[in-house]
């Protein structure tokens, strides 16, 4: 596995472990959903519910695919097995990416403003300096917006464990705690 991909697996695990207790559990995904929906005050209830649904699916996919010892939790050792069959996570990650970028585009224009991007990515747990670097890498327009579809594709690439050399690697330097 490429080094960038290993780093990303580690970072994504830290992000998903929203309460920071070292294992992934159902509660982590509820907590993350609370944080992210709170960062999307201009979105509709339906859009926020879609994000919650995508996080619930994310958890059920992870626990059904990766909870090898059957204790209802996914520890880091179990989680690393996600790289063996990345295709099993693709539909789940695609739904999450769509739900998240929709929250970033409350006007429905296919564009995400820097402030909304910062708020959502901070809620997920990324470090502000890294979020800024990623936004800039997307080459924002003069009025400081990026294409929602570009971000959506990057989320899918980022959470896929088998990719490397992508703009999202700017996020791999660590996570907020
Ligand atoms: Ca946890
Ligand atoms: Ca387990």
TrEMBL record:
<dbReference type="InterPro" id="IPR011992">
    <property type="entry name" value="EF-hand-dom_pair"/>
</dbReference>
<feature type="domain" description="EF-hand">
    <location>
        <begin position="4"/>
        <end position="39"/>
    </location>
</feature>
<protein>
    <submittedName>
        <fullName>Calcium-binding protein</fullName>
    </submittedName>
</protein>
<dbReference type="Pfam" id="PF13202">
    <property type="entry name" value="EF-hand_5"/>
</dbReference>
<dbReference type="InterPro" id="IPR018247">
    <property type="entry name" value="EF_Hand_1_Ca_BS"/>
</dbReference>
<dbReference type="GO" id="GO:0005509">
    <property type="term" value="F:calcium ion binding"/>
</dbReference>
<feature type="domain" description="EF-hand">
    <location>
        <begin position="54"/>
        <end position="89"/>
    </location>
</feature>
<dbReference type="InterPro" id="IPR002048">
    <property type="entry name" value="EF_hand_dom"/>
</dbReference>
């Amino acid at each position: 596995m490429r080094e960038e991909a290993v780093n990303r697996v580690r970072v994504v695990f830290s992000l998903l472990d929203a309460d920071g207790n070292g294992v992934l559990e159902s509660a982590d995904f509820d907590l993350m959903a609370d944080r992210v929906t709170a960062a999307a005050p201009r979105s509709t209830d339906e859009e926020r519910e879609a994000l919650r649904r995508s996080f619930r699916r994310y958890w059920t996919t992870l626990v059904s695919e990766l909870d090898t010892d059957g204790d209802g939790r996914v520890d880091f050792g179990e989680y690393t097995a996600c790289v063996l069959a990345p295709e099993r996570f693709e539909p789940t990650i695609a739904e999450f990416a769509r739900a998240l970028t929709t929250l970033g585009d409350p006007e429905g224009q296919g564009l995400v403003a820097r402030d909304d991007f910062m708020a959502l990515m901070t809620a997920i747990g990324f470090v502000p300096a890294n979020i800024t670097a990623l936004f800039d890498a997307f080459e924002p327009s003069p009025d400081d917006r990026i294409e929602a579809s570009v971000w959506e594709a990057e989320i899918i690439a980022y959470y896929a464990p088998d990719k490397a050399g992508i703009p999202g690697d700017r996020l791999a330097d660590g996570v907020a705690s």
